[in-house]
Amino acid sequence: MKRYICLMLIALLILTAASGCAKEHGETETVPAATPDGDPATEAETDDPAYASELPELSFENETFTFLVQHDPCFRHLYDVETEEDSSDIVISSVFRRNTAIKDKYGVTITAVKDGAAPAKAKNAFKSNDDTYNAVWLKVDDFFSLSIEGAFHNYGGDVPYVDTSKSYWDQGVVRDFTYGGKLYGLMGDISTSVSIFTHLLVVDTALASSLDVDVRELYKTVSEGKWTLDRFYDLLKNCNAYYDKNGNSVRDGTDTYAFAVPPDMLWSLTAAAGEKWVVKDGEDYYTVTPLTERLQKIVEDIIDIGNDKYTTVATWNVGTVPGVSDTYNYTIRTKFYEGTALFTDTDLGVVLEARNDKDGDFGILPEPKYDDSQDHYSTYAYPFYPLLSVPVSIKGDKLSMTGFIIEALAAESYKTLTPAFYEKALSGKYVRDEYSFEMLNIILRSRIYDPLYFYNWGGSFRDSLVNMLTGNKKTLSSYYAKGSKALNNSLKKVYEKFAAR
Fold first, then answer.
1. What count of other Cβ atoms lies within 10 Å of the Cβ of residue 350?
2. What is this structure's pTM?
């Protein structure tokens, strides 16, 4: 991990040198350099075994590796699979360089078939034993549907050369997607897609300055492990952010608020509290999490924040906004861009878009822990990200090559794609200081994955939880008694299908 951090810090230092200064509270000051333990140049040259590939020297002259990639309007990762030419975009350029390096070293050309019907194509390949596609990228719900049908190889033993213990593989994915001892999908440095959908808090620094909210003090609070839901809510209530912008003496969507949120705040803040709705039992299968006093209190606190009409503007209570038809995106995107929300609960994809669309600087923070007893931050990713799978129709030498190239791409991505993505995320209109990298690293390296979010087991269980939030109803205990039973029945059916294969 130390080598990874040092590489990122070097990228940050380059950015800092380019930017020269950052503005805080209307003052111009030199951005202090981030200082890791030890000499960055020395540490960066030292391979951490957790990140260093242990692949042997092999050659696959004139072979082609073909990805099948699900093409979806909401699927924002297509650019980092393959590209035929270099680009002025730093991330796309890193993909070109990564794939070129793989071709030069191992003789394999990386290609991709991008198709909205990829789930059906993957299923047909599985049924017909077609080995056209070495690997497939499918959105998480489509991935899971096919994985329990037996369409993919188990990374936990069937795919040669893939070492899931390496840190360039997302260890949260390895932990949370392993089911019954089998792992059929992976994610990590090989793609930025799950990072794009990772939730966080953005803070408008100009508005913060006008309200005497010290953003750097917030960064320090995060670094000290003291960024909790109570502290966050106290800030929302006491910062006096509400402003009747249009002067009509009516609380409406055009006014300025402390917090702008979508219904996903329920998932992001529950995950930030370290809680899941579906967990593993003693045999590594999914079951409903028990309803504890802690979980019930977390949900009630989230409902309070989401329905506090003086601090929070939400997609379910924003009302009619003149000239706006899509009030959902208006709440979580436009209010952030126009500076009429101090904080916004959104994802990193919106933040990247804001580099071009927002006037003024902003900062990023992880979603708050629930309380001081929680020993680490946790992060929610909106379930539109893909997982990488190897079809069971890939066999023999082709399977060996497939595993080898997947591992090689992941290891190379750690050195090329991930630093480029961090640099892009930290560029443009952004408060660049000694905490910027640390905040982004906390956010992207602390994801947890709850199956409830990507596969709506139990029919209305998930929807009913959202209805509690949007209806301002603290009825979790009464609903849990019946809703959890339906959910567990659905989980049992998944287990039976999985066990019958």
1. 20
2. 0.88
